[in-house]
Amino acid sequence: MSSLPPPPARLDPAFVDDATVIADSVSVWFGQKVAISELSCSFGPGVTGLLGPNGAGKTTLMRGITGLLSVNQGSVAVNGLDPRRDRRVYDGLALVPEDEAVPLGLTPRQLCAYVADLHRIAEPHVVERALDTVELLAVADRSMDGFSKGMRQRSKVAAALVKDPAVLVLDEPLNGADPIQRLHLIDLFQRLGDEGRTIIVSSHVLHEVESMADRVIVMVRGRLAAAGSHRAIRNAMDDVPRQVLVKTEADGRRLGAALLKIDAVRGVTVQDEHIVISTMRARDLSVALPRAARDLGIRLTEVRPLDDSLESLFRELVR
Amino acid sequence: MTAVRTGSARRHPILAIAAYTLRTCIPGRRRIGILIPCVVAVLFGLLVRGLDDTASRDFAHNAVESLFGLVMPVTCLVIGDAVLGAEVRRGSFTFTWMSPVPTWQIVVGRFVGGSVVAAASLVLAFGLSALVAGTPESVGPVAVAAVFGAMAYIAIFMAVGCIAQRAAVWSLAFVFLVERLLGSALSGVAQLSPSWEARAAFVGLADAPRVLERGGIPHGGAALVRLVVITLVALLVAQRRLPRMRMAGSAD
């Protein structure tokens, strides 16, 4: 561990006060390829989304956190323990890997029982409960070899739940799941987060992360690009233009012309009652827009950001 | 339908890992990979029966050259890679690794599972080979040497799996370059070779002509002891190396 403690969360959104997982100046490389570079962040209770394009280093970070690979520089601590040195860490740490691979020839029940055996879990019915949670009881005695990707993912989630982990790391856990199962799993992860567990979820399906994660960490090319709630990150990005859609009951041209006189507005596109405003200062616009509409006697029927989703945030950050 | 086990019936992790290894590490294609050399072993026995010379001497020749020199290493390579290296490459080793079970228990559990498969396959194949060759008195020695040789091979291939990412390739290099090529020329290398040691153990136990044995390595029971030492050292290497492995998984 580094001698310097991580900065308090109130100063740096990459850190949380009640951290259970801390990555401190972590660098990982594979030969000439640098997968993670000087990354520092922490994770605490609740759901944290880990976002980034392919090759951003998300999976490598998750494998570093879970001790599956050693970091070349820096350190990782989970509940105060180094996952590469202290195997006690696995008492409360589980991973749902992205790999489709599940142990060959095993049924979900056998996989869960195996995990329970390794953890010497004495609680009865723990296997049944885990399988029931991911709705796999009906196929619990079928070999996973013939399972779809989504069913394999759920089997791995069940195996992770068997050990009742305080820290659960999920690498693309919704891959292959059907829409109903996705909603069910999102609900499950949120519930686990609400129970005070640290849930770290990576996904390419950004709107799902948006709906389940309280906090987002964005990685780009092995570096930390942003951290915080997706809205907070968006607000912090003052130099990134945002677009706001405004709908009016009347012709939008009069309002559009008035808006162009406001400093916060960079440009306006008008099409009938629809106005798309480009701004660098959304907060100032939120004050100026209703004032301009009131002065002109124009009623606004809808005002909404066009690009306030994680998808657009992600696009901006990796640009 | 699998019975639902409750907490009171939980197995010891070593037993759980050994049972898991038996169940999962030998999938369909690998079973064929084991079956082929075992069938070849029996065919070698049939060939011996067709020769004019005395059956026991011919079987000894066959055992030394074919069974211990080819069938045993190939069979153990298929099983030894499956026990650890293949699971790490596939990414499913995380289910075993991410548990508070000490690494030595993981190594022992995997070794026990792999050794049971290898020993059972080879004892059956070699025993049948001796029977069809018409030398039932060779069944015991060939089985004992096969069991000890198989254990040493599985331990070595597990250690290779803990050291190298491409474990199957390195294991193959060990068998054909280190054992067969270097081992033929250098007795120092042959002394560490399960193949050469198992041959020497068989020759000693079967009271076969000493000319079949490679010079400069232990004989009979001493070769068995050497195989045990090789097994223990390889397991120790595996236990030491396992925590340092980079388990990148199939996605990387």
Helix content estimate of chain B: over 70%
Beta-strand level of the residues of chain B, as a percent range?
under 5%
Any idea of the CATH topology of the largest domain in chain A?
Rossmann fold
- Distance between the amino and carboxyl termini of chain B: 36 Å
> What structural class do the secondary elements of chain A suggest?
alpha/beta
In the CATH hierarchy, the architecture of the largest domain in chain A is 3-Layer(aba) Sandwich
Q: Which regions of chain B contain 5 or more consecutive residues with pLDDT less than 50?
A: 1-8
Task: Name the largest protein-protein interface in this structure.
Answer: A-B, 50 and 40 residues
- The CATH superfamily of the largest domain in chain A is known as P-loop containing nucleotide triphosphate hydrolases
Under CATH at level 1, the class of the largest domain in chain A stands as Alpha Beta
Coarse shape of chain A: elongated
**Based on DSSP secondary structure assignment, what is the total number of beta strands of chain A?**
13
Q: Main sheet of chain A: which strands, in order across?
A: 5-6-7-3-8-9
Strand/helix succession of chain A? EEEHEEHHHEHEHEEHEHEEHEH
Roughly how many Å apart are the termini of chain A?
A: 33 Å
The description of the largest β-sheet of chain B is: none
Number of helices of chain A: 10
Alpha-beta content class of chain B: mainly alpha
The total strand number of chain B stands at 0
Helix share of residues of chain A? 25-40%
